[in-house]
Amino acid sequence: MMMKRVRMGAVIVLAVGIAGYSIVQYGIIGLDKAGFILQKLSLGEVLSSMWKWMLGVHIVTSIFALVLGPFLLMNRNKQKDKLHKRMGYLYTAGVTGGGLSGLYLAYYATGGVIAQFGFGMLAILWLITVFLAVRAAVQRKIAQHRRWTMINYSLTFAAVTLRIWLGIFMLLFGPSLYEVYYPYIAWICWVPNLLLIAFYLKRKTNFVY
């Protein structure tokens, strides 16, 4: 129980930290001055007003999902609680907005087809798993709903792991090779998350998909 609380505490700290970082980068510093934008411009990429608008939608909606997710998972006895349901609606809206905008942004990902496919798959699986979580809730399959939510949040948490991996690669190889390693980050930011939660659920119970 103690280890579980420590793990959840670490998840919350990282989620809130990345959410705060995003607010500072894109909200306070400004979208056009954010490091992510400047990096893409330095590579000669042309960023349309539509792309910037979709990025804004992606940031705002994904922050909601990233921060709310751990609180939805902390106590399984709150499944019928009104607050839990309201938070669930917000989380689902966040994932839906983040997933749809992410699917659009994936097409313009730095690094070509490998990065585009990686982020595209992330967006699609993010949307599919939140649908399965909602369907299970509507059918009152609470245990299954919780497990699909855990799987979905492992994909939401890619917002954190992407920045961790990006920091590691930046430290090792510098910004000059950004186009080379970014396509790999498009996959390793979420595939290990998904495999870890699948392994955890497989060990814990026979999960019915």
Lay out the secondary structure.
Layout: H1 2-30, H2 35-42, H3 49-73, H4 82-106, H5 113-138, H6 142-156, H7 158-173, H8 178-188, H9 191-204
The structure class reads mainly alpha
Order of helices and strands: HHHHHHHHH
> How many domain units?
1
Largest sheet: none
Q: Roughly what percent helix?
A: over 70%
Spans of at least 5 consecutive residues whose pLDDT stays below 50 are none
Q: TL;DR of this structure?
A:
With 209 residues, this protein is an all-alpha fold. It contains nine helices and no strands.
Characterise this structure.
The protein has 209 residues and is an all-alpha fold. The protein has one domain. 81% of the residues lie in helices and 0% in strands. The chain contains 9 helices and no strands. Helix 1 runs antiparallel to helix 3, helix 4 packs antiparallel against helix 5 and helix 5 packs parallel to helix 8. The model has no long low-confidence stretch (mean pLDDT 90).
Which tags fit this structure?
mainly alpha; globular; 209 residues; 9 helices
